[in-house]
Amino acid sequence: VKAQQIDFLAIGASAGGFEAIGRLLPVLEGFKGMVAVVLHMPPDRDSPLSSTLQIRSPLPVKEGEDKEVMSPGNIYMAPRDYHMLVNPGGELSLDVGEPENFSRPSIDALFESAAFVYGKRMAAVLLTGANADGANGLKVVAERGGLTAVESPESARFPQMPAAALQLHQPSAVLPLEQLSQWLQTELLGIGDALER
Amino acid sequence: VTRDESTWEFEIRLLLETIFFRYKSDFREYSLSSVRRRLALALKKLGLDTISQLQDRLLSDTTSFDVVLQCLSVPTTEMFRDPPYFKSLRENVLPILATYPSVKIWIAGCSTGEEPFSMAIMLHEEGLLARSLIYATDINPISLRRAEAGLLRIEDIQKHTSNYQKAGGKASFSEYYSTTEKGSFLRQDLLERIAFADHSLSTDSVFAEVHLVSCRNVLIYFGRSLQNRVFDLFNDSLSPRGFLGIGSKETMRFSPAYSAFEEFDAANRVYRRRIA
Fold first, then answer.
1. DSSP secondary-structure letter at A28?
2. Distance between CA B40 and CA B46 in Å, rounded?
3. Which residues of B are less than 8 Å from A116 in CB distance?
4. Predicted ipTM?
């Protein structure tokens, strides 16, 4: 049974994140909200992310465009070398301002801007990574009433990013990827939870 | 939308109104999420906690506006940023401009001058510089002063050089600047062909007819209605069959002015005015 209605899900991941996101996406089947993703990519990799992740995703995946209004049931990826922010009304806005936590796109930039728009109607999930991006953003999401979840450092392929987030903030859930997927399914779709109890 | 979720939005809108009335700088149609991010930086620099404190400060202390303006202006870029864009201008646009008796180019939102510097070098290498004029405009007086001096950051020169080569540079980048004890400076004969001016895309109008407008990674900081205004302004500033280049993640597609243009090089975001 869902505690709060989640209209917007933000996912952040860095090193090892491509595989982790690929494993998380299948649980989004049937989600009626909007999803935005920041995935750090090494500068030498130039693969079109959205089409590669599409293979694993039940929802359409596309690169977020500047001033594009997100529509429900879609996944928007931050483009390479731009921050992706959310404006009121669910409008995406790109930004080439200075990197945050040595990262552009930055997970903090997405999480924070979305927290100001969606408040308690959002959830933010932070996965594997080897830097400290996303920690502050997660804290802002929680301060504004949103749900937060972190992949447990012990099970993450790169523990530094989840660990850094846990130093700053105690999220709603800290779980290995598989349980995290189930948790997400429960929170987003209200399924799974009733059976377990 | 609950009250809690939108209070920040009202506070920021009120602050932008204050800035407009007090200082005549118009950020009211800027993209709100970027403005919020940049104002957070301004708060930190001024040692303030809230937007309403900043509101009070701006009314009483004009020097604090300089800090806010620096934060709200887009930070500087590199020379030949996105080399394929400059390569496309060099290979596809400049040969057409070369058939005109004189060439006028407008770099809108030039920041500290890296883009007009790049353009001057290309025009020089294509033999067009002597009959070209580059207008380079921005709203930030500190950036403009720096640009007018032709100053290059020493730590950026390696990046400039590599971009220059990727963009189809025909010489050695080191030919175009000299280093003194005060820093590295763009060559004077290149700098002379650039006219720097204070111009706001939010509030100012057409000032010249030009053959090419280049405005890159500026429009993303604007809301849609201001973007539309600016595209109209560019349309009105361009000569018949004039060119417009924008940033690699910017698009004209949602703007009413789009119908007046054709996609000249879609991959590099170069548009060309249609015959009216």
1. G
2. 10
3. 5, 8-9, 33, 36
4. 0.91
